Amino acid sequence: MQDKNNSSKIQFERQKVLVNKKLSIYGSLIPVVFLMILLAYNIFFIEGQEWMGAYTNQFILLIGGGIAAIIGFYYKVSLKTILIEIVENLKSVFVPIMILLLVGALAGTWLISGIIPAMVYYGLQVLNPTIFLPACVIIAAIISISTGSSWTTSATVGIALIGIGGALGISLGMVAGAVISGAYFGDKMSPLSDTTNLAPAMADTDLFTHIRYMSLTTGPTIIITLIVFSIISLNIETTGNADISGLLVSIKETFDVSPWLFFVPLVVIALILRKTKPLIALGVGVCLAAIFAAIFQPKILENIASSNFYAIINSIFTDTQILTSNEKLNDLFTSGGMKGMLWTIYLIICAMVFGGTMDAIGALSKITQVLLSLASSIFGLFASTVISCLGLNAIASDQYLAIVIPGKMFKKAFEDKGLAPENLSRTLEDSGTVTSVLIPWNTCGAYQSGVLGVSVADYFVYAIFNWLSPFTTLLYAALNFKIRQLKNNLN
């Protein structure tokens, strides 16, 4: 009886604000259909042209919100109700936006302090021809965790590993699959990643709870991936030598590389494990990195600005690029600081406007009610979320929208089932973030294929971590294993 009472209470509270009995499912879907049409039009006819500049997806979300508002007015929903719901939604993402800004600052200070270069330097040295493929996974994972970017990892170290793999006579599809598997593992698990911040923001949970809970599915998946690549690597013949001396020399010439630099990330990790608030943990990471930059990289700071203080401030707020003697490393040693996070922040704000309007007119409630009627079981809810993420990756061709839209749509449905929000955020990442690279016309698939010089068809089967992740999350749901309930649903 306790579960039923809690569920009824949640539904009752929602009915006062979100339920619109006059609104039909067809009316609820009109903004979504228009959203999909505009996204499709942008993908097939406008992409690469100056239609709305760099923020096309953000404008489309605002247009979708405007259409939803018009439908709401037709069904007698007041402007005040819509604005109140939008403001409430924006309030809910204030902390995630602050975290994103700190993430940008962290990336900048970790670059100029030599922390990221040190991770690259020591990570490259674990290469061994007899275990080349699992080593690729590990190297890509280390660098992606430290940078929070699968794209940067593939465009720099990924290219180097593709070259080395080709010299060893290993299939480039295998190498690309290993790099992508490691890069997206790191992207998922790094607090520096925009998608790792976006998913918990959409589900209304905090960053480090999301990362810890996501490790329950991500850990076994990456272990299986490493085992498979180890078996493959031990059963293929290699020729030639893996020469990374040029990369190592360039890093050493540019930065003062020292194991002491790992003190900063270790402190941040320790704070995370002690469940310190994300803003505090990341803020400590920024401050320590700034101190280490002054100690270990005075020459780098001199090249950036007239004084150490201004160089550090510049790395926190704006673009920073450290040039080396090796062009392959120049893209890696680049950071946008807080400025680099504005695109994602604008996307979140626009998504909150769209989602808040859909909430206010009762559209999300109506859609989730229909979805719940089609998927009455907990497994059905997880499966519906996974399918929605996969579908949006294919239709919208953008991993951010594959997180944002299902996140807004299914948030209330997970609450109705008495499921903790981290279940949703984990599912969004397990199915939305990692599968984007498996679709040739998705921005991620097109980017990775172009950068690595390997078609999606060639690396698809070897991107083991990426296609295995949604199966893992569905298996956990089917077995009801590690599915956390809302605290007020437990007795």
- Specify Rg, calculated over alpha carbons: 23 Å
Please state how the strands of the largest beta sheet are arranged side by side.
1-2
Written as H for each helix and E for each strand, in order along the chain, the element string is HHHHHHHHHHHHHHHHEHEHHHHHHHH
In percent, how much strand structure appears in the residues?
under 5%
Average per-residue pLDDT, rounded, comes to 84
SSE layout:
Layout: H1 2-17, H2 25-46, H3 56-74, H4 79-92, H5 94-112, H6 115-124, H7 132-147, H8 150-167, H9 172-189, H10 194-203, H11 207-234, H12 245-254, H13 263-273, H14 278-296, H15 298-304, H16 308-317, E1 320-321, H17 327-330, E2 334-335, H18 342-360, H19 363-374, H20 378-395, H21 399-416, H22 421-433, H23 443-452, H24 456-459, H25 464-479
Helix pairs in contact: 2-3, 2-19, 3-18, 4-18, 5-10, 5-14, 5-16, 6-7, 6-12, 7-8, 7-9, 7-11, 8-9, 8-23, 9-11, 10-21, 10-22, 11-22, 11-25, 13-14, 15-16, 18-21, 19-21, 20-21, 20-22, 20-25, 21-22, 22-25
Question: Care to describe what's here?
Answer:
This protein has 491 residues and is mainly alpha-helical. The protein has a domain at 95-341. 74% of the residues lie in helices and 1% in strands. It contains 25 helices and 2 strands. It has a two-stranded antiparallel sheet with strand order 1-2. Helix 6 (115-124) runs antiparallel to helix 7 (132-147), helix 9 packs antiparallel against helix 11 and helix 20 (378-395) runs parallel beside helix 22 (421-433). The chain is globular. The protein starts with a helix and ends in a 12-residue tail after the last helix. The relative contact order is 0.16.
